[in-house]
Automatic annotation (TrEMBL):
Cellular compartments per GO CC: microtubule
Chief localization: cytoplasm
Residues bound to ATP: G100, Q101, T102, G103, T104, G105, K106, T107
Signal peptide feature range: none
Source organism superkingdom: Eukaryota
KW Nucleotide-binding (keyword) present: yes
Organism, scientific name: Paramuricea clavata
PROSITE patterns on file: KINESIN_MOTOR_2
Protein name, as recorded: Kinesin KIF3A
Cell compartment(s), UniProt: Cytoplasm, Cytoskeleton
Keywords: ATP-binding, Cytoplasm, Cytoskeleton, Motor protein, Nucleotide-binding
GO BP of this protein: microtubule-based movement; mitotic cell cycle
Amino acid sequence: MPESTAANENDNVRVVVRCRPLSKKEQTSGCKAVVNVDERTGTLSIKNEGGRPGEPNKKDFSFDRVFAPGCKQVDIYNDAARPIVESVLEGYNGTIFAYGQTGTGKTFTMEGVRSAPELRGITPNSFAHIFGHIAKMAGDVRFLVRVSYLEIYNESVRDLLGKDQNAQLEVKERPDIGVYVKDLSAYVVNNADDMDKTMTLGNKN
């Protein structure tokens, strides 16, 4: 199956690395960029300028895909997220999550600036993708889209859309539906704006 339309069935897990540019504070402090990105080979090279004599002057790391600091939000979405969303629309499960230290750009990559189309992150782009797919479906096919939003922190599960923000939910498993969170709220949404408003509400909690 082409990568542009759905995730490769052999790609159970893909690791995509995005390098952010130096912040203004880092530039003012005289920090130097020590990471070189080769998008063609999926390789990151980290300079080892403070290494001891005899140590390599750089270390190389390979990933499924790497993006240089100047990459665009849409490039990240099309490569890292679009194939997964396409697979979900075909009935498969899919997960996208960002991992990194504080200040590395996780929130910008996932959410971006929702008021500026070119700066929207993976999450709002996936909203538009899902409802764009629904709008293109012909015939008598009907869709029901429900949204849930939860937080897992220190092994505690909290419903970000629930009335009781202090309630700790339980992760369960059933033969017919697999893993699920008991008593997790779900809201019906009719368009991407509804999903965006629901996420904004959850973020406040």
